[in-house]
C-alpha cells in the first residue's frame, strides 16, 4: 500500500482540531475526513468516524494494525508540518 497523495485543509478556528486531511492510496482509493488533532502529547490523527445510536463514535475506515496506523500518521503529520512551514512564505508573497 502506497499513499500517493495527501491533501491538507487547515481549520481556521481555534481549538484542538488543526486540519482535515484526505489521503489517496495507490492512486485508486481515497479516505476523506482524517482529522489532525493536538493532544496533550502532541499531534495525532483521528480516522473518519460516525456517531452511533448509542452516542459512541465508531471509525468508518481505519488501519487494521498499529504499524500501518503509525505509517499513515507519520506521512500525514509530515505533510501537515510542510503546509504549516510554508504558510508564512505564502502570506509574505501575497503582500
UniProtKB/TrEMBL annotation:
Keywords: Cell cycle, Cell division, Septation
Gene3D superfamilies: Stage V sporulation protein G
Pfam families attached to this UniProt entry: SpoVG
InterPro entries given in the database record: SpoVG, SpoVG_sf
Membrane-crossing residue ranges in chain numbering: none
GO BP terms in the entry: division septum assembly; sporulation resulting in formation of a cellular spore
Superkingdom of this protein's organism: Bacteria
Family (UniProt): Belongs to the SpoVG family.
Role description: Could be involved in septation.
PANTHER family named in the record: SEPTATION PROTEIN SPOVG-RELATED
Protein name in the entry: Putative septation protein SpoVG
Annotated organism of origin: Blautia wexlerae
